[in-house]
Amino acid sequence: MSLWRKRWARRAVAAAIVVVAFAVVLPRLADYSDVWGQVRELGPGSLAALVLATALNLVTFGPPLVAALPGIGFRRAFTAAQASTASTYVAPGGAAVGIALMFLLLRRSGFRGAAVALAVALTGLWNQLALLAFPALALGLLTLTGGQNPLLKTVGAIGLVLFVAALALFALALASDRAARRAGGLLARATNRWDAEVILRFRAQAVELLRRRWLHLTVATLAGQLTVFVVLLASLRTLGVEGGEVSLVEAFAAWSVVRLLGSLPLTPGGIGIVEIGLTTALVGFGGDRAEVVAAVLVYRFLTVVPTLLLGLALGPMVRRSEHGPAA
Questions:
Q1: Is 162 helix (H, G, I), strand (E, B) or coil?
Q2: What residues contact residue 227 under an 8 Å CB cut-off, 6+ apart?
Q3: Is there a contact between 123 and 129 (Cβ–Cβ < 8 Å)?
Q4: Measured on CA atoms in the order 45, 48, 54, 60, is the torsion positive or negative?
């Protein structure tokens, strides 16, 4: 199959998933008129809580880049993060599209290629480690509270294995020049674009940066990830899904598993997959169908649309800054 046909096949599959999610699955779980009725009943206090949770989530986009790219400042980090995330909602390819755009925007801002590559790699790696760790954490919390969920057990166990493996490989690559040189040799043979010296330089830069900023990067990454969950929790509680129906731990478990599954590049931003997965899991835990569907749709609106609008508006405004010419 040609590259052109593969692209169109992927787009057809993505479109089919979205159509099935919103035209078949969700309407069977709850009538959209009932869902809209739940949303219309939101009072001023509930709306204020949702706006506050959304604003909190938005301001956490920039700090990981601030930690990983010295000298960028919050404003430019916020702009690059919003624009790169927005791109994942409109283009197939998932995180790869966002990473590529972030690299281009940061280079356009005047930062050196090596510094940008390191920052993008570390922020991406930290986010992936968080995505893998959360289902395992949720599994432990759910087990302690007496909950049972076969899907969570499976995904949590897989996430734990992948998290440990990724962390071990990263630590090994940073541990010695020999390991870094071996990785460079493997990449050189696989891509014909890298060599051992490039990997050694990258290792030295990564070790130096992480020695000074690993805690800042870790805290900023966790804040950025967990404020997304705060938006979901606010959506659930303001739309009537109380703790007696879906507890805090159960909501976190559903969110962590579905967020990991939604990161697979099947549809832009996991659209359709996240909605079906979250709704099914939360209803399975005991949530009212109409309330859960309403909460999930509000959550997705608040975590996608503001970033999409900000990213599309701010991305084209990025210009070469006073930071100096890119090298």
A1: helix
A2: 53, 56, 57, 60
A3: no
A4: negative
Residue 65, pLDDT above cutoff 50: yes
Most confident of 105-109, 155-159, 193-197: 105-109
Cα-based torsion angle of the residue sequence 261, 262, 266, 269 in order, rounded to the nearest 10 degrees? -170
C-alpha R_g of the chain: 21
User: Among all chains, which residue has been given the structure tokens 């990981």?
Assistant: 64
Q: Please choose, from the candidates 216, 199, 223, 220, the residue with its C-alpha nearest in 3D space to the C-alpha of residue 118.
A: 199
- d(Cα 120, Cα 115) in Å, to the nearest integer? 9
Residues 6+ apart with CB under 8 A from 304: 89, 269, 271
Residue 272 φ/ψ, nearest 5 degrees: 95, -50
Rounded CA-CA distance 160/82 in Å is 29
Q: Which residue matches tokens 């980090």?
A: 77
Neighbours of 111 (CB within 10 A): 25
Q: Can you give the length of the chain in residues?
A: 327
Whole-Å CA distances, 33 to 30, 268, 323: 8, 27, 53
Whether the model pTM is above 0.90: no
Give the whole-angstrom CA distance, residue 134 versus residue 226. 10
Alpha-carbon distance of 110 to 112, in angstroms, equals 7
